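User: These chains co-purify. Model them together.
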Amino acid sequence: MNQITLTLMKVAFLAVLWLFVIAAAGVIRADLWGSKAAAKAARPRKAAQPARPPRSAAPPRARRAEPTKLVITEGARAGTTMDLAGTEITMGRANDVTLPLGDDYSSGRHARLFSQNGQWFVEDLGSTNGTFLGRAKVSRPEPVPVGVPIRIGKTVIELRK
Amino acid sequence: MTSVAAEPEVQIATRPRRSAQLSLLIFAMVITIAGFAQVGLARDGSLPAGMYGYGIGLGILAAGAYFVVVRFAPYADPLLLPLSVFLNGIGLAMIYRLDLKTSLDQKKAIAEGKKISYIGPSTTNQLMWTALGIIFFAVTLLVLKEIKVLQRYMYTIGAVGLFFLALPGFLPSSISGALGAKIWIRIGGFSIQPSEFSKLALVAFFAGYLVNKRQTLSIVGKKIGPVNLPRGRDLGPILVIFVICLGVLALENDFGTAILFFGLFVSMLYVATERFIWVVIGALLLACACLVAPMIPHVAQRIDAWMDPRAYFDGGCQIAGKIVNQTHYDVCVAKGGHYITDSSQLMFGLFSMGQGGVLGTGLGQGEPWRTPLSYSDFIFTSFGEELGLTGVMVILIVYALIVQRGMKAALATKDNFAKLFAGGVSFVFALQVFVIVGGVTKLIPLTGLTTPFLAQGGSSLLANWILIAILIRISDGARRPAPQPIQDEGMTQVVSTQ
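Assistant: Joint model of the two components:
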């Protein structure tokens, strides 16, 4: 190996190292401001939303089935999912409940979800602002069908199959 | 008050970015193999036999890690895995370069009677540890579906972390000691450095504790001037753990890790309470520590060697107030002098980087093996010599990017425990790089810490791969799109009170 080749190799290697950093920075840039590909990928998703009714047209079948997980669809903790293991779930603003909501409009111990013979019930624990199942205020333990929103403050919770 | 959760909405791409991740990963592998090739061509004049074996080995591991991430954390940050593989890969190439078993130029240097300080780098070992590290990475991703699970066991995790941190201090030196510090546990042929894992465990504990207490910590308490001091019963437990940690580390002569834990403690309190005063208190405590630390002989030596390394090159010997250079320990003590640490390692490292200059000598063309521990603690100066400032800056930027991605995950996640955890581990990672790189470049006194992913060493690799797995899990949770409601109710709702 002569010296010139080695020097060229050395400089090429350094250049490749910097290309790697630039490529990594490019990925971050797309993350920060979005890339054309990201925008394209996001648009069809929105367009697909009106096509959802077929899915909600099947609730009768869904309602009979047992839910297996709980999802938060709106509110401070939107996106949180939790597996339903059969044990009671308490919800509220406090940190030591099973499902902390981080919601200023909820009470410390706001409501609880519990299961009886495979059916889940929601019970309000004397909260200030109330718990709503669908559009009705929960005043006694109510059975919770799959896909019906439970509202606690600004948080919306659903049970899913 | 949901102060931590109420940051401005962070815009993030909520879709898997598989292609970006895969192409960067392939890029990282290409760089690794190019590094191996260059070492072989420059050092031995031919493509090295090890290139295929080690290259394919690392390639398979990286591919495995990629599939685990795609399958089990599809929304994860696309940068964390490729950046880690990049660092691990070029670290492996550098260790291969220093590995005496395969290196012709070092054998020639020995034949010519040049001094080779330490024989120990082993590419095979490092690849084995990398494999184990990536297996740990995969297992962490598979087992830890929700980072919150750790919060439930925070006291157990904290206790286990503390136990293993303290263990080497109480074991006999034959099991735990080496190079002046008692931080290892050696069983059979293996040695592990438990402080690497304790670091993660204590971040988990602090995060869990602070999530529950941050509001009382930042609001309740006595106000003395601008300082809002928390109540003893709120701050007590972390303060106790913190003091135990520092005590243990002083007992084990492990000051690098002590600095890490201190930084961790201050930064997590700051993040949890949002009170800048914690940073000020931290800085003041650090200033006090800087005044007190020179009273400990081990630290005093390090500081002396840092202030004026030339005086202690090959060991300094203080006889009747005068420093006599180049004296061995036995000779010095026989003359009735006070032996001061050998700064030759630091000096060799500095010479090494000076030799490299801006562009470096090229992989396989320098003589980085002259520095003792050039493959572990001083691997940064080896890169400084062979890749120069240009290459070293790439390495530092890659570290910075990992930290930035970790902090980004902390900002984006909604779960407060994950937020504190990600912030804490990212900060510790950054601080570790600063302490060791600052140490070998003579910016701060040298303390032995591993250079994450680059340095040869099993515990460090395992712990760092677990750390990356946790960050990937948190970023996956943070970037996952929120589930759409099944029933669209519209903005208004009719409320009937029965």
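Chain B touches chain A through 63 residues (CB under 8 Å).
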